[in-house]
């Protein structure tokens, strides 16, 4: 098979993956008052990572992003469960969420909710599950065939 | 002044409705190409443009419903469309979507 030169794909990927990660962060933080949240933010992040995988191949991506996505799932589940347990410490029912106002340096008066931490758990679990599914399917053959 | 506002509003509404009709007709013609298309690249291009038309439709319906909550959806459709088209193109060209070693 002839070697193809996909420089256009690689150059646009460096730009578009950057925009995608920014958009996913926006969706993640906008989830409280607008459409968005942990699930769709995690899906967008994994879309960016999949795009990089498609442009650069598995071998170089394992060098750039040395994360085993199977380990991301329990971390996300643990964060989500711990925010639930945190309510028990203050004599409240399980999964009680609270919020408070803080003065932050640049943002000014900001409402910070513990629901964001729960959302972070959802985000990590979604990224882990999506990337595990896609990478195991992409990896399953080719070891012996050498495609 | 009030009359002027009403005229503008109905103008926007009718324009949006006409545009939605146009986009719908183009979607139906594209669907014909996606079903009938003799080769697989024909279908891939047709599906790509169906997605672009869906973006236009979402924008027009956001105008009709007077909301800004659809703007994220439009961007999202564009991104997913790009990734889907790249994956389809890689599959048609090389047979694999994510290669093991590219260099």
TrEMBL record, chain A:
Residues 8-132 form the Na+/H+ antiporter MnhB subunit-related protein domain. It is a multi-pass membrane protein. GO terms for biological process: proton transmembrane transport; sodium ion transport. NCBIfam families: 2a6301s02, PRK12573.1. Belongs to the CPA3 antiporters (TC 2.A.63) subunit B family. This is Na(+)/H(+) antiporter subunit B. Its main location: membrane. InterPro entries: CPA3_antiporter_subunitB, CPA3_sub_B, MnhB. Keywords: Antiport, Cell membrane, Hydrogen ion transport, Ion transport, Membrane, Sodium, Sodium transport, Transmembrane, Transmembrane helix, Transport. GO terms for molecular function: antiporter activity; monoatomic cation transmembrane transporter activity. GO terms for cellular component: plasma membrane. The chain crosses the membrane at residues 7-29, 35-56, 68-90, 120-138. It comes from Halobacillus litoralis. It is found in: Cell membrane. The keyword Cell membrane applies. Pfam families: MnhB. It comes from the Bacteria.
């Amino acid at each position: 098979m002839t070697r193809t030169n996909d420089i256009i794909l690689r150059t646009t990927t460096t730009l578009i993956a950057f925009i995608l990660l920014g958009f996913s962060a926006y969706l993640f933080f906008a989830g409280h008052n607008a459409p968005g949240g942990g699930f769709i933010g995690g899906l967008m992040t994994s879309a960016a990572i999949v795009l990089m995988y498609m442009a650069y191949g598995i071998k170089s991506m394992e060098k750039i992003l040395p994360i085993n996505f199977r380990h991301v799932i329990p971390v996300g589940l643990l964060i989500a469960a711990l925010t639930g347990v945190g309510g028990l410490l203050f004599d409240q029912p399980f999964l009680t969420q609270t919020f408070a106002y803080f003065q932050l340096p640049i943002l000014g008066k900001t409402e910070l909710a513990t629901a964001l931490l729960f959302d972070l758990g959802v985000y990590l679990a979604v990224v882990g599950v999506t990337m595990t599914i896609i990478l195991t399917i992409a990896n399953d053959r080719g070891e012996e065939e050498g495609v | 002044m009030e009359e002027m506002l009403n005229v503008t509003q109905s103008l926007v509404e009718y324009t949006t409705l006409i545009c939605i009709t146009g986009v719908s007709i183009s979607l139906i013609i594209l669907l014909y190409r996606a079903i009938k298309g003799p080769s697989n690249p024909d279908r891939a291009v047709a599906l790509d443009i169906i997605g672009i038309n869906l973006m236009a439709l979402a924008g027009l319906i956001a105008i009709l419903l007077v909301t800004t909550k659809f703007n994220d959806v439009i961007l999202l459709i564009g991104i997913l469309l790009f990734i889907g088209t790249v994956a389809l193109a890689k599959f048609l060209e090389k047979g694999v979507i994510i290669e093991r070693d590219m260099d």
